[in-house]
């Protein structure tokens, strides 16, 4: 009797919603400590709160109300969701067709570019102007690079931070900020670090990729993770070469000096924003051209079925190494810009956490979808900047990673293709779902089992 | 070249002098790695996946044990029967916590994807998400600073091997891990449940046709591996202390051990763990302590490139 009651679908959904809301309540609550291990939990549930400043009550009541509302929405959606979705997609069919026409897409991209150029003048706030560089533009650059590796070629790289670190350290080396003497015996301008950095990261990508890319996907993830850790350990301990754990603080600002044109970057963030924006646009163009080329199609083929791709005459190793090297290039760029804008670098900023954060940006927007990745990166980074700038009560900076972890799981369960999936992925998924209609309860295991 | 020869000669002298001392420590570390490695191997057997969240199972065991010790250990260090009781309770709590964390990970991060026949990349990502969620949540609830476990026993030298002291701590690890490995070997090799696990590892679809409940078998596999991982976390914490991200490096090394021995192979995992622990400890003589982790990763990369099936070879679904 009780058992059958709990097995009814709406009741089960209510229990799930209650559980999820209880977890949300916990992760947004006050922190605890190892001396009072229950304090975080009791604080999260029993702390005083109020409904929009009206009724004085406790946190758990507020969240209970929230859970009931969420449950109501969930019930409504299970009952009417399909109709709404069908109507929505038929209503959007026309605009979507229009939006997929080439002139419209190009026009839209140009409008966004103009918005991007005007943005620092629209947000006339010191924090947000520098956040546009340090939080947003750099990360967009990194995310579109990792997207080549993870999204286009389907290789899970957990050591992406290594390429970023190589870019940053190359800048420090070229400008003479490291204990190692700079190339050609004298310090060069930070702008000249760009070609060095790109060459180094591409070489590093090939060196790392050539032996490891033969491995299966999960092994590759672990090996790249180990590689990222090794780079950090070396950066931390090779005092004579990298400056060790204290890093370096003497990287000069870049100066562009070719012929009569001379421009020197200073402390102001906006010029760096334009530098980063320019690099983002450059890489966006390169990557989207690559995606549509033979190389991009080879990547897709390898991602979907490596054996089939190989039987069609594609050399998987060659294209995988290429994806690694190409993806690394934008990380190298990002490293140069960060190092020269900040003037300093510390090995502690190049950790595994960093690689995972970039991965999250790629997954939220949609692996393989360039526009999706850009949008996803902007959303997450703006939220992060906001949370760090004006933290809500009880929020500590590492809490962000709790949200990030939850977001990764949720995305993989409900929307694995991301917020804005690429058109190709969307078609693949619809085709796949259609071919599996009518078998919702099969004992399903992974494809390769 | 001469200086390099000198370097080797002096270091080999140190190695000779310190060998048994380092060996004992290496065995203790290696047994801990082995306990975690077994968890990787079990899950790999049934799902063909590396459970990235296994490090957090280790961490939850560490914290569960820490809280038991805090509650039980008073102002003076307990001795005799009290010590044994506290350690048994700590192991029970850590094993339960590890199993609970593993179940949670399986239910939330793996099972929904299994239903949808998701690609491998999706599993890896959701497992990384689960790992991130758990260890940062632990950081939020229990603070971000490391804390030492209260000592539940007097860590004196029990006996010596060739002059190298074997401490109480080493002995506890040895006894606990050997008992658990024997129990596990029996469970997987001799029981109905173990037959289920092996059949799912060999061929999941056929096993389900033969009446094996796949969901239940996978859940139990996670519980068994999680319990071992949790106990390992407790034993590790006894010496090192606990902190929210304590699982990361030991788990990576345990994974190396599992690959070294041959993933999917239980005895291989134990062998790989012991070998890695000993080799790593002996390397202390040759490289600075900071580079020890590099040695472990180097071994991992080398094994994957030269012999990806490990020393004993992958053995999915055959006895032990």
Distance between the termini of chain B: 47 Å
The strand line-up of the biggest sheet of chain B is 1-2
Shape of chain B: globular
User: What is the strand arrangement across the widest sheet of chain A?
Assistant: 1-2
Strand content of chain B: under 5%
Short summary:
The complex is a heterodimer of chains A (449) and B (320). Chain A is mainly alpha-helical and 449 residues long.
Explain the layout of strands and helices:
The complex is a heterodimer of chains A (449) and B (320).
Chain A: H1 2-7, H2 9-27, H3 39-46, E1 48-51, E2 55-58, H4 59-99, H5 102-122, H6 126-152, H7 161-174, H8 193-212, H9 217-237, H10 239-242, E3 255-258, E4 261-264, H11 269-292, H12 294-304, H13 306-311, H14 316-342, H15 352-365, H16 370-389, H17 399-414, H18 423-435
Antiparallel strand pairs in A: 1-2, 3-4
Helix pairs in contact in A: 2-3, 2-4, 5-11, 6-11, 6-14, 6-15, 6-16, 7-8, 7-14, 8-14, 11-12, 11-14, 12-14, 15-16, 15-17
Chain B: H1 2-47, H2 54-72, H3 80-115, H4 120-142, E1 157-161, E2 164-167, H5 168-190, H6 192-202, H7 204-209, H8 214-240, H9 248-261, H10 266-282, H11 292-306
Helix pairs in contact in B: 1-5, 1-6, 1-8, 1-9, 1-10, 2-3, 2-4, 2-8, 2-9, 3-4, 3-8, 5-6, 5-8, 6-8, 9-10, 9-11
Describe, in plain words, how this protein is organized in 3D.
The complex is a heterodimer of chains A (449) and B (320). Chain A has helices at residues 2-7, 9-27, 39-46, 59-99, 102-122, 126-152, 161-174, 193-212, 217-237, 239-242, 269-292, 294-304, 306-311, 316-342, 352-365, 370-389, 399-414, 423-435, and strands spanning 48-51, 55-58, 255-258, 261-264. Chain A is mainly alpha-helical. Chain A folds into two domains: 2-82, no CATH class; 123-429, ABC transporter involved in vitamin B12 uptake, BtuC (Orthogonal Bundle). The longest helix of chain A has 41 residues, at 59-99. The model of chain A is unreliable at 438-449 (pLDDT under 50). Chain B has a single domain (2-306), classed as ABC transporter involved in vitamin B12 uptake, BtuC, CATH 1.10.3470. The radius of gyration of chain B is 20 Å and the shape is globular. In chain B, a hairpin with a 2-residue loop joins strand 1 (157-161) and strand 2 (164-167). Chain B is mostly helical and 320 residues long. Classes of the chains: A mainly alpha (449), B mainly alpha (320). Chains A and B meet through helix 9, helix 15 and helix 17 of A and helix 3, helix 4, helix 7, helix 9 and helix 11 of B.
């Amino acid at each position: 009797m009780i058992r059958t009651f709990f097995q009814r679908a709406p009741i089960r959904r209510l229990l799930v919603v209650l559980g999820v809301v209880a977890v949300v309540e916990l992760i947004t609550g006050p922190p605890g400590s190892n001396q009072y291990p229950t304090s975080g939990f009791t604080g999260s549930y029993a702390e005083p709160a109020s409904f929009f400043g009206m009724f004085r009550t406790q946190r758990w009541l507020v969240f209970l109300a929230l859970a009931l509302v969420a449950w109501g929405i969930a019930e409504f959606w299970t009952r009417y969701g399909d109709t709404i979705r069908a109507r929505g997609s038929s209503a959007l069919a026309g605009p979507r067709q229009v939006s997929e026409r080439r002139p419209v897409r190009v026009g839209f991209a140009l409008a966004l570019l103009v918005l991007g150029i005007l943005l620092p003048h629209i947000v006339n706030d010191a924090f947000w102007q520098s956040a546009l560089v340090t939080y947003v533009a750099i990360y967009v650059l990194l995310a579109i690079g990792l997207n080549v590796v993870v999204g286009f070629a389907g290789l899970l790289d957990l050591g992406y931070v290594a390429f970023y670190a190589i870019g940053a350290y190359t800048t420090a080396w070229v400008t003479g900020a490291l204990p190692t003497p700079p190339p050609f015996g004298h310090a060069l301008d930070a702008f000249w670090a760009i070609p060095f950095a790109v060459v180094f990261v591409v070489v590093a990508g090939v060196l790392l990729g050539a032996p490891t890319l033969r491995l299966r996907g999960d092994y590759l993830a672990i090996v790249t993770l180990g590689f990222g850790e090794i780079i950090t350990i070396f950066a931390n301990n090779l005092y004579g070469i990298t400056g060790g754990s204290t890093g370096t603080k003497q990287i000069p600002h870049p100066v562009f000096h070719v012929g009569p044109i001379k421009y020197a970057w200073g402390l102001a963030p906006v010029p760096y924003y334009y530098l980063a924006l320019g690099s983002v646009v450059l890489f966006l163009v390169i990557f989207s051209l690559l995606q549509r080329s033979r190389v991009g199609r080879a990547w897709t083929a390898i991602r979907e079925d490596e054996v089939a791709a190989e039987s069609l005459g594609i050399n998987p190793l060659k294209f995988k190494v290429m994806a690694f090297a190409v993806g690394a290039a934008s990380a190298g760029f990002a490293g140069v810009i960060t190092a020269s804008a900040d003037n300093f670098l510390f090995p502690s900023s190049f950790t595994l956490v960093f690689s995972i954060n970039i991965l999250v940006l790629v997954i939220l927007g949609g692996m393989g979808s360039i526009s999706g990745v850009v949008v996803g990166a902007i959303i997450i980074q703006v939220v992060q900047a906001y949370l760090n700038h004006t933290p809500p009560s009880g929020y500590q900076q590492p809490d962000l990673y709790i949200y990030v972890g939850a977001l990764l799981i949720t995305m993989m369960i409900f929307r694995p293709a991301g917020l804005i999936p690429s058109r190709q992925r969307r078609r693949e998924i619809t085709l796949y779902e259609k071919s599996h209609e009518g078998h919702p309860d099969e004992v399903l295991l992974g494809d390769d089992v | 070249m001469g200086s390099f020869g000198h370097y080797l000669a002096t270091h080999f002298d140190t190695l000779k002098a310190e060998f048994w001392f380092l060996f004992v420590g290496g065995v203790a570390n290696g047994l801990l790695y082995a306990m975690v490695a077994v968890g990787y191997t079990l899950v790999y057997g049934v799902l063909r996946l590396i459970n990235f969240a296994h490090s957090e199972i280790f961490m939850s065991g560490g914290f569960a044990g820490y809280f038991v010790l805090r509650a039980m250990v008073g102002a003076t260090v307990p001795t005799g029967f009290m010590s044994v009781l506290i350690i048994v309770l700590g192991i029970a709590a850590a094993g339960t916590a590890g199993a609970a964390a593993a179940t949670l990970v399986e239910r939330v991060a793996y099972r929904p994807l299994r239903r949808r026949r998701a690609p491998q990349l999706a599993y890896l990502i959701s497992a990384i998400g689960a790992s991130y969620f758990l260890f940062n949540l632990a950081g939020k609830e229990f603070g971000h600073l490391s804390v030492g476990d209260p000592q539940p026993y007097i860590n004196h030298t029990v006996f010596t091997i060739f002059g190298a002291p074997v401490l109480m701590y080493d002995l506890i690890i040895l006894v606990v891990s050997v008992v658990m490995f024997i129990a596990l070997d029996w469970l997987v090799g001799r029981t109905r449940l173990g037959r289920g696990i092996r059949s799912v590892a060999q061929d999941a679809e056929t096993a389900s046709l033969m009446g094996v409940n796949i969901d239940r078998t996978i859940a139990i596999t996670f519980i068994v591996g999680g319990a071992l991982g949790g106990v390992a976390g407790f034993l590790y914490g006894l010496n090192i202390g606990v902190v929210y991200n304590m699982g990361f490096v030991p788990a990576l090394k345990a994974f190396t051990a599992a690959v070294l021995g041959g993933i999917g192979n239980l005895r291989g995992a134990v062998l790989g763990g012991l070998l890695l622990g000993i080799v790593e400890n002996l390397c202390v003589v040759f490289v600075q302590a900071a580079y020890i982790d590099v040695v472990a990763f180097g071994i991992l990369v080398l094994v994957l490139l030269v012999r990806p099936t490990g020393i004993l070879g992958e053995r999915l679904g055959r006895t032990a």
